[in-house]
Design goal:
The structure is a single chain. This protein is an alpha+beta fold and 270 residues long. It folds into 2 domains: 2-116, Diaminopimelate Epimerase, Chain A, domain 1 (Roll); 130-253, Diaminopimelate Epimerase, Chain A, domain 1, CATH 3.10.310.10. Helices cover 16% and strands 44% of the residues. The protein has 4 helices and 19 strands. The strands form 2 sheets. Strands 5, 6, 7, 8, 9, 10, 11, 12, 13, 14, 15, 16, 17 and 18 form a 14-stranded mixed sheet that branches. Strands 4-3-2-1-19 form a 5-stranded mixed sheet, sandwiched between helices. The protein starts with a strand and ends with a strand. Belongs to the diaminopimelate epimerase family. Its main location: cytoplasm. One of its GO terms (molecular function) is diaminopimelate epimerase activity. One of its GO terms (biological process) is lysine biosynthetic process via diaminopimelate.
């Protein structure tokens, strides 16, 4: 038997497993089972809580810092997950694994700062977003859209549509892209409707998951591309099916702020 925790951040839900000393061999098929909503626990991914010194591909200088080992629902390893980072941080706080309101979490995309705010929301530093100069072609439901590449530690393509188009999307169908070599490891595709400058609505198809209620790094990618295209200053507020998130820009970096909630604890057979 193994213990688990379950929670979500704006509807993006995850199974959390504590493996502080790196003793667990978390196989892809085990992740798929854990994330299965009928045969397992159910989630968009798995967050393994482990010390950085016990992760072979960690580049953190401090081996004692907590490392967020994130796996997509299909078992694949991902570099970063913005909503997962908030939930991971909420778990650290509730379990007493960190003692300050501001701390650092190691990820495959590098170290990320986290702040717990007075209203109990969490602000996470997702670093500098690298926006590609040349758009790619995103194909979906017989349409071709201009996709703006954005790297938030993981790959994104941001597409702008009108409100009716956004609501009508069937994201059980996975988008494709051209040129294929633009995203050799897959891509998260964000569909964005600009309600007004600084305010967006978004739906997303995540690689390894399909449509999710929210994607934190996707929200940051969308807000950054919108800011560059529109010249808007100040925070960008993004509404996703799972709730509302805010992106702010500080010293060339981006901060994502929103809620994260642990909803259950239990044990599973493996």
């Amino acid at each position: 038997m193994m213990l688990f925790t379950k929670g979500h951040a704006t509807g993006n839900d995850f199974v959390i497993i504590d493996d502080h000393h790196g003793a667990l061999d978390l196989r892809a098929e085990q992740v798929v089972w854990l994330c299965d909503r009928r045969r397992g626990i159910g989630g968009d991914g798995v967050l393994r809580v482990v010390r950085a010194g016990n992760v072979p591909d960690s580049d953190a200088d401090d081996p004692a810092v907590w490392f967020m080992d994130y796996r997509n629902a299909d078992g694949s390893v991902a570099e970063m997950c913005g909503n997962g980072l908030r939930l991971f941080s909420r778990h650290l706080l509730e379990q007493g694994l960190v003692g300050e309101a501001e701390f650092v979490v190691a990820t495959r995309a590098g170290l990320r700062r986290v702040r717990e705010l007075p209203d109990s929301t969490l602000a996470t530093d997702l670093g500098e977003v690298k926006v590609g100069r040349a758009p790619v072609t995103i194909r979906h439901q017989g349409r071709e859209l201009e996709g703006h590449p954005a790297d938030v530690g993981n790959p994104h393509a941001v597409c702008f549509v009108d409100g009716e188009e956004l609501d009508a999307l069937d994201l059980t169908i996975a988008p494709t892209w051209e040129p294929a070599e633009a995203f050799p490891n897959g891509v998260n595709v964000e569909f964005i409707h600009v309600v007004e400058p600084g305010r967006l609505r978004m739906r997303v198809h995540e690689r390894g998951c399909g449509e999710t209620l929210s994607c934190g790094t996707g929200v940051v990618a969308a807000a950054t591309v919108h800011r560059l295209r529109s010249g808007v200053e100040g925070p960008v507020r993004v509404s996703v099916p799972g709730g509302d998130l805010t992106v702010t820009f500080e010293d060339g970096g981006t901060w994502l702020t929103g809620p994260a909630l642990v909803v259950a604890e239990g044990e599973f057979r493996h």
